Each structure stands twice: as C-alpha cells, then as structure tokens.
Amino acid sequence: MESVGSTIGYWIIALAIVIFSVLTVTTRKILRAATYLLFVLFATAALYFKLDYEFLGSVQIAVYAGGIVVLFVFAILLTTHPGDNSERLASRKRVLGLVGGIAAAGACAWALCTRCTDMFTSLPAMSNPTMHRIGEAMLGTGYEQYLLPFEAVSVLLLACIIGGVVIARKR
Fold it and tell me: Which pTM value belongs to this model?
C-alpha cells in the first residue's frame, strides 16, 4: 500500500502537468509557451523519479527539458519577435472544432478506462497495483508494456519541430 504522502505527491505532480500543459497551449506569448512546456517536462521527470526510474528521469531532463526546449527557444528567436503577442485565431468553425475535441477526448478517456480495467483485472500481478508495478507496465519493454510507443511519440514530436523550423526558414 502506498503512503498518503506519496499519493498526494503524485496528484501534485499530475496537477502541475495538466495546468502547465493547458497554459502552454493557451498563452498568446510564444516564449511563455516554451517556458510552460519546460515546466511540463520537468514535472514529467519528477513523475519518473517518483516511479523510481532515475535513468529515464535524468534522460527526460537532459534530452527533452534541456535539448528540445533549447531548440524551441532558438527556433522562436530565429523566426519571430518573442515579445509580440500572437494574433488571435479567427475561425467560423469553432463549434465544429469544439465538438471534434470533445469527441476525441471522450474516445481517449474510453480507451484509457477500458485498457486500465483490462490491465488491472486480467493480470494476476496487477490485482493489487502499486506505483512501481504501474511504472513497469507503462515504461517497460516486455509484453503489454509501452516504452516503444512512448519513444515513437517523442521521435514524432522531434520530427514536427524540425519540420516547423524548415517551414519557418523558407518564409
């Protein structure tokens, strides 16, 4: 059984990730968005350290919080004026976008809930889950473990950053 302090620490880290993620995509100042992203990556590293994945937490800080955010900042400084506010997006299809966003969030929530239910009920080792077991299930390399998709998403994000820099340089 996990201690109450450990559970409270987890919820504080998770809340920080959610708050700074929302601030990252809602701020109109691009340099602030990069700073909020840095806070998200540090909080993710704190979550890894909490799950006793010291190496993965260190890699998160060194590669993502250090390297990727520095790449973001250089790309921002090379392509825009960082003190300016970005213009407000005007679109007539906000309702359609909102409906699509809610539908996508609902599909993700449904997939997460059914997958977690299957994970905790089908595996005998997961009948009494601890943070260590959940961390192994999410970031392990064995059967029904998710390190490969996690790293595939990180490579996809890096490709998006490089593509954005290439497009910005052509303008």
Answer: 0.56
